[in-house]
Every structure is written in C-alpha cells, then in structure tokens.
UniProtKB/TrEMBL annotation:
Entry-linked CDD domains: ABC_6TM_exporters
ABC transmembrane type-1 domain: residues covered: 226-508
Gene Ontology MF annotations: ABC-type oligopeptide transporter activity; ATP binding
Organism: Aphanomyces invadans
Compartments, record wording: Membrane
Protein name (Swiss-Prot/TrEMBL): ABC transmembrane type-1 domain-containing protein
Length: 571
C-alpha cells in the first residue's frame, strides 16, 4: 500500500503543476514515469504471486478480477506514457485514475487472499447468532430457570453483545461452560444436541448492504424521498452558482472586459450572490427528511409486528420474550439512528461533492478529475475500517461490563452475607480497566480518522490552490476562475470530511439492520379466516375435561392451569 500511495501522490503532483504543453517539463515527465515503472514491477510481482497461489479461485472474487483488469490497463497506460509524448498528459491522467482504483481494490483482494488460505472451505468466518444460542437454552428439558438465567448472562459476557453474532471460538467457550449446568438426567451428547440448533451465517452487512437496505425501506415513501432529493440537489447547487457569480465579478466587474459592461456585470454578480440567500435559507430538507424517516420507521414497526404475529408457535418457542422485545427496544432505535447517519453522513455530503466536483470537471477537466479521484481514495482508504472494529469492540466490552454489573446487583444478598465486596470490586475494577482501554482505542482511532481525512483534504486543497496560482501566472486561467475554483474546493472539502466518517457509523449499527431484515424476510403462515369455523359440522356428543394443564415448553409456565369445562353437544 505504501508503494501504491507513493505512485499515486507522484502522479497527482505531476498533473497538478504541469500543463498539456510538456516541452518544458521533460525531466519531471521522465522522473514520474520512472517512479511508476518501478512501482509497476512490484505490482506485477504481487499479481503473479496471487495468481500462482489462488489459481482458478481468483475468479470467485469480483474485486480480484477487477484488480487484475486495472493492472493490465495500467501497463497499457505506462507504455503510451513513454512512447506517445503528444498526449502523455492524458495518458498520465488515465494512469492516475486507475491507480486510485487500484488503491481502493488492493485491500479487498488482500482480504480475499487471506480468507482463502485461512478458511479454504468457506472463504469466510462463521458468525453464530447469539439469539439462537439463547433460544436453544430454553429447549433443554430439565433445565432450572436460575441456571438458564445464569447461562444467559454468561452468554452475553462471552459474546460481548446481547443480540448480535459470535465467533466459533466463543461458541466453544460457552459450550464448555454450559456443560457445568447440564441436568443430571441429560447425557452430554443429548445436551450438546439441543445446543446444536443455532443459526450460523457466513455473511454480515457491510456499508453497501446498509445503503441498499435503507433505500429499500425508504422506497415506500416515494413522495417524501423525491422531495428530499430535490431539496438536497437545490442546496448542493448553491456552491457552483456562487462560484459562477464570483467568477463574473472578478473577470467582468472588477476589470474592463470586451464581453460585458462593468456596471452590468457588477449588478448581475451582486444580485446573484444575494439571491442565493433565498434558497439557502428556505430550502431546508429537515422537514421532508424527518417526515420520511418517521414514516419509514412506523412502517417498519407495523411490518415487524405483522410478521411476528403471522409466525407459527414454533417461532415463539425458539425465542424468548426478551429477544423479541429487544427488536423494538434496541434494534429499532439503532436502525433509526443509522438511517439518520445514511442521510447526513452519506447522501447529503455525497450530493454536495458530486455537484461541486462536477462543476470543476465542467470548467477545468484536469482539476475535476484530480478532485474526484483523490476524494474517492480518501473516503475509501485509511484507518476507517480499523476504527470501526475498535468501535464494535468497545460496544462488546461495554455489554460485558453491563452484564457483570447486573450480575453483581442480582447477587447482592450473597455478597453482603459472605462479605465478598472487596473481591467483587477488585474483579469488577479489572473488567472496567479493560473497558477503559477499549474506549481509549475507540476514541483515539476515531480521532485519527478525522485527522487523516481533514489533513489530507487540507493538503490537497493547498496543492490545488498553488497549482491554480501558477496557471494564473502563466495565463492559462483568469483570476476570476482562480477565486471561483478555490472557493469551490474549500466548500467541498467539508462534505468530504463528513463522508469519510460514514463507514464507522454504518458498520457499528449494521447488525441491527441485518437482524430486522432477516426477520422481515421470514415467510408468513396462511392466516385463518374468521368464518372458517362456521363451516365445521356441529359436535355429535358433549366433551367434559377436568384439571387440565397445558404449557408450550417443558419446564415453562402453565398456559392452562387445572382447567375444568364441559362443551355441550351441538356446538
């Protein structure tokens, strides 16, 4: 990755400070080509090693296939950069864009290669649903209620979360602990057989899945979604219009121009800048955005309840009431916060970037291409993924501490009776110290992500400003264009910074959205018509029963307790 970034930055610096007329920059042209050729040797060597180790398995990864095609295209660009000097600027620009794509694809192909060698059978780590393991505890006959509650707390502590997923290693740790609470009349094989019925998956939601699922849930609010997109586009168009009016003032109003009178240009420019205050003040998307998300949340709640109520009794026997209540208590709240992040941390800044850099691409194509490629690399690389893992680890450790605290409170009578306060406090303090370390890593890497994005964007704007200043001095662009482009770069740098933090928010709450989507995808049982019972023939004899008790689960609470009744004939 370091070699990739060196090649990427060298090409960016070259394209920023030279023009299409390269007769004065032949030395720098050869220098940048030599850097790219040296890096290309390492690229090819790495690709040969990957193809030699993966062979046909490389076709199972779209990222690996695309990375191979990008490398071939880079070789073609490198050839023409040396032998076709007439248009070498644009061949270097194409090589720069392909290098940016190579930077983005490289981590994905590396992860695929590691997973292939480490998990050759499935290419992915297995994720076991914590809720399914908890539900399996209630199916074991002869289990005491207190033992089930104890194992429930231990499961939360080991998994690090109450309703997410756990790894195979953590499941093995829990099974070893659960054997201690095995009923005496139940053999080890039978006991483990009940705990074998768990939901395991090899796929978990990523950022793309979060966005796809969110848009699918929002699709039901078509009118509000269209209005939100319209208002967001109106807000995003303010910055390009402001740049146009600044360009008009600097080139037509401040100095004499043969194309327009100075007073007329001044009036147009000033009135245009003031007129932009109207859409900026009135075109707020908070109303439509709040309305859309609230309606989508209400629709999700109704659909969720409808899906749950349409399930057979086996569905409820396999899940505790707490698991189902968690869907409304925590998962829905987290999904609602995630939807807010999708709008404010993804859609809003993304549209602003598209409009801003689109204006630069139209007015100054090299500057627009450089901006798009740099922003693309910036928001998809760096420590965002590692920061998201630290955030998830903090959430797991926080759940562990909360479970330990709840366990201590529930056992407070025993603790006081045997004077176990010092022992319990020392143990709890060790757990809190671990949480403190996890919180530090979460906050630290979140700050690193922010510093990485802001610093990189600031450096890019500074480099582009210096490049534009040189082009003004050489007469390639006017001073008005310089002020317009610099203003646009400064305005768009903030949305790029916001967009860089979306990955951390998406990964932290993706599991809740995935659980809700999986539940909504369950097939509904066929509802029984209210008039279906009227078609049944009347009873030919009366039925009497006494002291009838009924329970759904063995060892559970009685739904019917010593009920006596007589059903007369003819009903």
């Amino acid at each position: 990755m370091a070699v990739l970034f060196v090649d990427f930055l060298a090409q960016m610096a070259f394209l920023s400070f030279v023009s299409e007329d390269l007769h004065r920059f032949e030395f720098y042209l050869r220098l940048v080509w030599a850097i790219s050729a040296t890096c290309m040797t390492l690229y090819v060597f790495d690709m040969v090693l990957r193809l030699g180790s993966l062979r046909g398995a490389v076709l199972q990864s779209f990222a690996a296939i695309l990375d191979f095609l990008v490398l071939v295209a880079l070789l073609v660009c490198l050839y023409f950069r040396y032998y076709n000097l007439e248009v070498v600027f644009w061949w270097t620009m194409a090589s720069f864009i392909l290098t940016a794509l190579h930077v983005v694809l490289k981590p994905k192909t590396r992860v695929f290669s590691k997973k292939f060698h480490k998990f050759r059978a499935g290419f992915e780590k297995i994720h076991i649903s914590v809720a399914s393991v908890r539900a399996s505890l209630y199916k074991i006959p002869g289990m005491v209620a207190d033992d089930i509650l104890t194992l429930d707390r231990k499961l939360t502590q080991i998994a690090g979360n109450a309703d997410g997923a756990m790894s195979r290693t953590k499941l093995m740790t829990f099974l070893e602990l659960a054997l201690v609470y095995r009923p005496k009349e139940c053999s080890v094989s039978e006991f483990l057989g009940y705990l074998r019925d768990v939901d395991a998956s090899t796929y978990s939601y990523g950022a793309v899945d979060v966005v796809t699922s969110t848009l699918r849930h929002w699709a039901g609010q078509t009118c509000d979604l269209i209005m939100v997109v319209l208002v967001v586009c109106m807000n995003a168009s303010i910055n390009p219009l402001q740049a146009l009016f600044l360009n008009l003032l600097a080139d037509q109003a401040f100095i004499k121009s043969p194309t327009m009178d100075q007073d007329t240009a001044l009036v147009y420019g000033v009135v245009g800048l003031l007129a932009l205050c109207i859409p900026f003040a009135l075109a707020h998307d908070r109303y439509f955005q709040s309305k859309m998300i609230s309606k989508a949340t209400a629709q999700l709640q109704c659909s969720l309840l409808q899906t749950i109520l349409s399930q057979p009794t086996s569905f409820f026997a396999a899940r505790s009431d707490g698991d189902l209540n968690n869907l409304f208590g925590s998962d829905l709240a987290r999904v609602n916060g995630l939807w807010q992040a999708v709008f404010w941390n993804l859609i809003n800044p993304l549209v602003s970037i598209l409009f801003g850099f689109g204006y630069l691409l139209y007015s100054q194509p090299p500057l627009g291409l450089l901006s798009f490629a740099f922003a693309f690399v910036l928001v998809t690389s760096g420590p965002q993924g590692y920061a998201a893992k630290q955030s998830k680890a903090f959430g797991s450790q926080n759940a562990y501490v909360a479970s330990d605290f709840a366990n201590a409170i529930s056992c407070q009578k025993v603790v006081r009776a045997y004077a176990l306060q010092p022992t319990l406090l020392s143990k709890f303090r060790a757990v809190v110290d671990t949480l403190q370390s996890a919180q530090f890593r979460k906050d630290f890497w979140s700050g690193i992500v922010q510093i990485y994005v802001e610093s990189a964007m600031y450096i890019f704007v500074a480099v582009m400003t210096a490049s534009l200043a040189i082009q003004v001095r050489q007469g390639k662009i006017t001073s008005g264009q310089f002020f317009a482009f610099v203003t646009m770069l400064a305005r768009v740098s903030s949305p790029v910074t916001i967009l860089g933090g979306f990955m951390r928010v998406a990964i932290g709450n993706a599991s809740s959205l995935q659980r809700l989507d999986m539940l909504l995808a369950l097939p509904a049982t066929q509802a029984v018509s209210p008039t279906a019972t009227t078609t049944m023939p009347p009873m030919k004899s009366s039925v009497t029963f006494e002291n009838v008790s009924f329970q759904y689960k063995k060892g559970g609470a009685n739904v019917l307790n010593k009920l006596s009744a007589t059903i007369p004939k003819g009903i």
